[in-house]
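Lab meeting minutes (informal)
Scribe: AK
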Amino acid sequence: MENRDRRKINRGEGFSKKHFTTPKPDNKEMVFGIRAVIETIKAGQEIDKLLMQRELGSSPLMAELVQVAHAHNVPVSKVPLEKLDRITRKNHQGAICFISAIRYVSLHNILSEVFEKGQTPLLLLLDRITDVRNFGAIARTAECAGVHALIIPSKGAAQINADAIKTSSGALNFLPVCREENLRDTLQYLQQSGLQVVACTEKADKSIYEVDLAGPTAIIMGSEEDGISQDLIRKADQLAKIPMIGNIASLNVSVATGVVVYEVIRQRT
């Protein structure tokens, strides 16, 4: 793939133990208060996630928030009051949303553009990768390697904030990210579009070096805690592992992603 062509496309818009850090929320990325959150969503801001108080009773304003969030496909999580209070001690009224640092793109549009250019799709699907630094490092490697897009779930993924942008060294300004409601349905769509889905897991019999990655491919990388979920493994076309020779039987997920992605590049070049 020519580098200049890849750049044009990109401008379209479990291998380790869990290593959690909880970044301190940046007030510039956070909006709180029911009416303020409603107006932020209506204004067309890209919302990374919306936290709503679990025990909060029904009210016309809260019902409006739920309706607006649903209409704009905003991921909603019901959480206890204590979690909201840990984020801010100000009067949040039971609702806090985080504004995404990027705009998500349509997976359909990405695939259409890649196929129209006569290129071979390479996508990375990240299953519940929650560490912001891992996510940023993966994005940096993916952009350097010419991956056409990252695919993440609408819930249970790292927040794409200033820390993620910084860790990616700005790669997230160029690399499209697709946010999907149901990853199982997404895998089926990818397969129907002619891509093979390869799940990278230590439970595989084949090495990543034994799998043909030259054709249209989507790679699944699993969470820091427990790898790829079983329902996604069952739907994958191929399972592959990175050979381990030393005493430690796992790699950090961002490092593992680099190994796998560059094996794809090696085979294609």
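Next up, CB showed the second protein from the same session:
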Amino acid sequence: MRWLFALLLVWLALPALADDGARSALATVDLAGSSLTAEGRDRGRPRPMELRLTISQPVPYRVYFLDGPPRLVVDFREIDFSGTRAGDLPGRELVPALRWGRFRSGWSRLVMELPGPYALRTAVQRPAEGGAGGALVKLRIEPVDATEFVTRGNALSALWDLPKPAEVTPLPPRRTGRRPLRVAIDPGHGGHDPGAQVGAIYEAAVLLGFARELTEILTRAGFEVVATRKDDSFIPLERRMTIARTAQADLFISLHADALPAGEAAGLSIYVWNPQADDRATRELATRHDRADLLAGLDLSGTDDQIADVLMDLARTETHPRSQAFAKFAVSELNRAGIGMHSRPVRGAAFSVLKSPDIPSVLIELGFLTDAGDRANLFDPDWRARTAQALARAISLWAQDDAARAALSRR
């Protein structure tokens, strides 16, 4: 199997080894309008830094970190770095090393070695400053403790970077009951993306409040909780999954309370991964959920190449039924608690936070801010408490059922 996997990776690499071919209309870098700066005085410790790249036209990009040594990686689709030297970037001396160039067909890469562990605080792409044409990509990073250094060390990123087969991180084993069940709670939106807005009500704030209440109930019930965000901060969609994966979460629950035109949607609903979902409301929600990363210039659509798609689908043959099983337990317990739900409570959607092939994942629309009844529920302490308690019971029942099924499969 490993030998076959190696052949697949080699086959995937072939397009990147082909002749560059014609390159037209690619973005270029304006070094005069680009820089790397650091805040505060140099006292021998890592400082907050800001990378600014002025480019001739907007391009999709994605940002992540790697370790050994700590590095910031920015993949662009696509910048023509030929004719510019990374060493000429103003402020280059602030980091141990900086390099850039084309690394595979359709993609360019910037790698900046860092003086220690960092976290991404803002990622913005906007029109270039000073009346210049093109766009400005601005990334702000801040030093963090090693325990908070989130790297892209998962199977998906390993496939993207084409390592040797032995270096591909295997899927984590099913939980065997030796530790409490670990649940990742993901309040949607945050920071510069407030989510749906109705008057003075912001989805991001509503979700953060409910997530805290749910976390308290789950903790009291004996579960371990991992929060993808604990304050009003922007967390890229892909990083939310990485946080859950790094913490070895057993279940991922994303929370939303979105907006659709009046009369189109009302009631709580639960979504599982389904890239073929094609009803209009679901497509609109998927666009809204992913818009924060798209506005920041982060490209999610190109993350999964052909081979990665196949391998992740194989992984989902185990995790997807587990996601569906949790959704069914949740619907049952919510019904028992008298929580009003959508007429079709379990649905499929291609939400990016449900992509993870190795963690059972669901997205729960607690309701829609555009519906007066749902809006009232979201501000009703009794409704929130009953909903959180029903979800806690569903998690407990699902965990017992999941462990029993895992034991049967081992036999």
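CB comment: The chain has eight helices and 17 strands.
No objections, moving on.
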